[in-house]
Amino acid sequence: MRLSLANLSRLPADIRRPAYDVAAAQVGVVHLGVGAFHRAHQAVYLDDCLARGAAGWAVCGASLRSPDTSEALDPQDGLYTLAVRSGTGDDLRVIGSLRRLLVAPRDPSTLLAAMCDPNVRIVTLTVTEKGYCHDPATGTLDEAHPDIIADLANPAVPRSAPGFLVEALARRRAAGVAPFTVLCCDNLPANGETVARVVARFAALRDPDLGRWVEAEVAFPCTMVDRIVPATTDADRAMVAGRLGMEDAWPVMAEPFTQWVVEDRFPAGRPPLEDVGAELVADVRPYELMKLRLLNGSHSTLAYLGYLAGKETIAETMAEPAFQRLVARLQDEEVTSTVPAPPGADLGAYKRALRERFANPALKHRTWQIAMDGSQKLPQRLLSPIRDRLAAGAPIGFLALGVAGWMRYVSGTDEKGSAIDVRDPLAARFKAVAETAGPDADRLAEGLLAVREVFGADLPTDPRFTGAVKAALGRLYAEGAAASVDAATRG
Ligand code: CS2
Question: FRET label pair with 381: which of 154, 312, 330, 338, CA 20 to 30 Å apart?
Fold first, then answer.
């Protein structure tokens, strides 16, 4: 038996299910990048909106790459299970907001048609940092990106997120349909502004007039999204099937915590998100800095150094006293001074909660998963706070240790001499640098510091930064990650 609309009534009583007529819900949101994070975050808020009677805000979810999600969920009428995992057990709930699934590479025109539906008033995105085809150091469109070149040459059959957004916006404009609001839900700095810049530039390259129209007419509110969502494993699928008494080909696993802070700028209308726990604010920036720097900055630091120390998951890494000290000192002594507290927020409580969230043993969040795409993540997570600290003449030792951990990781060889499966759009360049440098820490650091897309033009010329990173990388090679973290956090 498989999860489906017809089988909903066969679920055991302890499994929550959509409290509304799923089949009657209308699509009002197209989502690009329908992966686990979207399904454990925005889709849940929208499921709650639907349950409160906002029937026009169901989701059509598209994948820009693999057909996996659609193949798993189509036979289930788009239904899937959200398992919320804490120390006290797993709370299971079936989500119904995903009413339609599309696979962009298979059928780009159907996705474009869905984006042009006048009932669709918001296009949300979780395509990961690299999905915007931008330069991470400057936040501008990477005009040499192969997908951007392809989408400019053939705009009616896009591949990239900017390509789909601009083609759909241009078609709506031509048809006299008001533009949708573009809601980026990825962990980019100033995510709405960054995506606005990238999309307007792409549009201008197609046609300067279209570029001006996008700038003037399309809203790109900023958001801060937060929920830890590890990749689903076969053991998770088996657990869910056992509880449901039926198969779910792709449930999603999440922590209890969830937060969505949204800039309230939706000219075409929006669902009543404030009724379902989201925070609608005028300025997302302080929330974003708090989250990107304290949560994601610590996460990346734990991921690289934890992986090198032989740790499979973040919770395992956080079980080590030295790593607990690292997170505490990184956050308290370096990062907090770069984070303006959002209105009413208590940063001390936020950090304590974060450390508990990282330590949640029910979440098997792999260090390897978080280590992915470091070139796209480092700038906003570690390098921006480093810039702020340097400008203030303040020490950066723990932040630099995180950067050195990344360097050691992307060298592609672990402390036992085994290969690391480095996933990153710039992985081939890192590999070439590592091959030239061999085991020489200074040469590796110099080669990687020259990657302008990550470090920009300023940091590689600041000896306070390069000195701290080289010293930390030298110790990582000499002593290993576990001993380096231990030594760096004592005293
Ligand atoms: C993580 C994030 O994979 C990563 O890079 O740091 O996915 C993190 O779990 C989320 O941003 C939490 O909201």
Answer: 312
Q: Ligand 1 center to residue 118 CA distance, Å? A: 33
Structure tokens, 316:
């395992």
* Burial class of residue 400 in the structure, from the number of CB atoms within 10 Å of its CB (0-12 exposed, 13-18 middle, 19+ buried): buried
Distance 215 CA to ligand 1 centre (A): 30
> Which structural domain range is residue 467 located in?
285-490
Residue whose CB lies within 8 A of the most ligand 1 atoms, among 184, 185, 227, 228, for a mutation test:
228
Whether ligand 1 lies within 6 angstroms of the CB of 187 is answered as yes
β-pairing, 259-263 vs 223-226, is: antiparallel
Same domain, 291 and 424: yes
Atom number in ligand 1 closest to CA 373: 5
**What are the two backbone dihedrals, phi and then psi, of residue 313, each rounded to the nearest 5 degrees?**
-125, 165
**Cα separation of 442 and 451, whole Å?**
15
Q: Are residues 338 and 272 in the same domain?
A: no
Is there a contact between 422 and 431 (Cβ–Cβ < 8 Å)? yes
Half-sphere exposure in the Cβ direction for 475 (13 Å, CA): 21
pLDDT (0 to 100) of residue 420: 98
Report pLDDT digits (tens) over 288-321.
999 999 999 999 999 999 999 999 999 999 999 9
pLDDT at residue 439, as a whole number? 87
Q: Does residue 228 line the site of ligand 1, with CB under 6 A?
A: yes
Quote the pLDDT of residue 491: 78
Q: Which residues of the chain have pLDDT under 70?
A: none
Question: What's residue 150's pLDDT?
Answer: 98
Residues 297 and 265 in one domain: no
Kindly state whether residues 43 and 117 are assigned to the same domain: yes
For ligand 1, atom 11, name the residue with the nearest CA. 226
